[in-house]
Amino acid sequence: MTTFHDKVIYQAYPKSFKDTDGDGIGDLKGIIEKLPYLEDLGIDMIWLNPFYNSPQNDNGYDVADYTSIDPLFGTWEDFDKLVEEAGKRGISLMLDMVLNHTSTEHEWFQKALAGDKKYQDYYILREGKPDGSLPTNWESKFGGPAWSKFAETDQYYLHLYDKTQADLNWRNPEVRRELYKAVNFWLEKGVKGLRFDVINVIGKAEELEDAADGVGKSHYTDTPIVHDYIQELNQETFGRYDDVITVGEMSSTTVKNGIKYSSPKRHELSMIFSFHHLKVDYKDGEKWTTMPFDFLELKKLLDEWQRGMDVGDGWNAVFWNNHDQPRANSRFGDTENYPVETATMLAQTIHLLRGTPFIYQGEEIGMTNPRFDDIDDYVDVETHNAYEEMKRKGLPEQEIMEAIKEKSRDNPRTPMQWDSSKNAGFTTGTPWLKVPDNYTTINTQNETISKQIRDYYKQLIQLRKDHKIIQEGSYEPFELGHESVYAYIRELDDQKLLVMNHFYSEEALMDIPKALLDMKAEFLIGNKGERKLESLFKLDPYETVAFLLKK
Ligand code: GLC
After folding, report:
1. Per the structure, how many domains does the chain have?
2. Is 390 inside a domain boundary?
3. One domain for residues 149 and 248
4. Is 85 a catalytic residue?
5. Same domain, yes or no: 376 and 495
6. Best residue among 11, 13, 15, 61 to mutate for probing ligand 1, ranked by most atoms within 8 Å of CB
């Protein structure tokens, strides 16, 4: 079994990474071109978001053909070359498997529409209720009802996401076989990592019923049968290899299920993404609101997941950013006054935790939310649905745009900022999504802010390789109640790793107990230069520091 505890995974969003043919959309050739950059960073694997044939209503998560490459992104030759060239640099690929739903343009859905019964049973079709209302009262995660009319029939098809993303019927063994075939196809092409999109919602109940909360999550999230399906997926596909790393994207999951999905004993997945810690700036649980983040809640959640997964032998993917999340430094720090401290502190918080770190393109150079003023500068389907919904509710334009600037999924999707030339060196054409204004200072060629942040990431990545305690050490919180510092201790054999991360701009003090002071403390890494451990330890704004303690 390959270990993944010493690995760091980099997420490249192909559409926005690097465009080589001037159409304004990133491509596979662009990723090949930038492999030296990724090698220099020190990462082990690149997760690529979907680049399969797709109408792009949800940026490729509406897959029309699982075993294809959309010409937008390149050719088979490009793909093979990418695997080969990355391999030469010790980097492997992780692909995104969107197995909960297909695009309504997928051949299966099209055949179903044309009346083919076999393919109708690939999807979840139901009659409306006798009173003419929808089969259930469930909501789509992108707003509106989760059901749409199935052609001119009396039936409706289920879509937990956009109406062009029809949920597959995993109860049908033939559907599962087809999906496993697609996964194996990519494994045979040399792919060594798989990221399973919203995999914990594939197991819908047999009888679909109205939800008491009018939303419906409990009717399809983490149902017992999901675990059976994932075990089967494992056996039929990646479980046949001993060097494939998998991660499941888990919507609204629990620690208890997280352990089940990722404990090696259960033969499900290598690790999971959970998202509770990224909802601490949702007012009353509502995404499209603005609120300063709740630091104590953030710590509580990180701690609960760290401790729970440690005790239960589960494994977390640790991350702040991805293609669905606003930039973490814009959310949890001060990018105006402390851009370097903010970015490095957030990075260290995650990289020294127990779990496998994921870096999302651009965070290693301090990219921020773009804060576009005009709704027309946003492309994302969820963002536009939310905009319309807030308009319908009569909210003032300014309040709506403020929520969008902070929460839109386009925040992380802006083009990668390579240099200070036009369009940040991303494309010679017109980028599909605007480049943020700050590209002239925040870019990979910048010798001040971006360079300092990237150098720090390189150190963190290297430290994980050098220290078993970072890979394997246990986790326990330290001074969990502290109002501005999130600190923790990792432990392995007779060593401890003390990590302190300060999330605010006022000075903070930490009391270091005698038992720790009595150990031999070696400064490991920090964003304020070398420090000495002392009983009343003072932290500067957004300071992060780690000490290795030996008996
Ligand atoms: C996941 C993806 C997101 C996509 C959704 C539906 O949450 O990360 O981008 O819209 O699944 O496939």
Report:
1. 3
2. no
3. no
4. no
5. no
6. 61
Distance 519 CA to ligand 1 centre (A): 47
CATH number of the domain bearing residue 142: 3.90.400.10
Is 405 within a domain? no
Instruction: Specify the ligand 1 atom closest to the Cα of 324.
Output: 9
Residue 489 CB coordination number (10 Å): 17
- pTM strictly above 0.85: yes
Distance 99 CA to ligand 1 centre (A): 11
Quick one: 147 and 232 in the same domain? no
Claim to verify: residue 133 and residue 187 sit in the same structural domain: no
Q: How far apart are CA 79 and CA 31, in angstroms?
A: 10
Whether residue 118 sits in one domain with residue 72: no
Supply the pLDDT for residue 3.
Answer: 83
Give a yes or no: residue 397 inside a domain. Answer: no
Residues of the chain under the 70 pLDDT cut: 1-2
Q: Is 529 left (phi over 0), alpha (psi -120 to 50) or beta?
A: left
Residue 506 bears catalytic tag: no
My answer on whether 188 and 274 are in the same domain is yes
State which residues form the domain around 532. 471-550
Choice among 197, 363, 364, 382 that is catalytic: 197
Supply the pLDDT for residue 1. Answer: 53
User: Which one of the listed residues 62, 167, 249, 406 is annotated catalytic?
Assistant: 249
Encoded tokens for 540 = 């500067």
Element (H, E) at 500: strand 495-502
Sign, Cα dihedral of 325, 328, 329, 331: positive
Do 367 and 475 sit in the same domain of this protein? no
- What are 466-487's pLDDT values in tens digits? 999 999 999 999 999 999 999 9
Strand, coil or helix: 260 = helix
Strands 495-502 and 544-550 come out as antiparallel
Q: Give the three-state DSSP class for 105.
A: coil
Residue 275 confidence (pLDDT):
98
Ligand 1 pocket, mutate which of 51, 56, 324, 380 (most atoms under 8 A from CB): 324
Instruction: Please tell me the distance between residue 201's alpha carbon and the centre of ligand 1 in angstroms.
Output: 12
CATH code for the domain in which residue 277 is found: 3.20.20.80
Could you tell me if 114 and 85 lie in one domain? Answer: no
Q: Which residue puts its alpha carbon closest to atom 5 of ligand 1?
A: 61
Around ligand 1, the residues with Cβ closer than 6 Å are 58, 61, 98, 161, 197-198, 249, 323-324
Main-chain phi, psi angles of 322, to 5 degrees: -160, -170
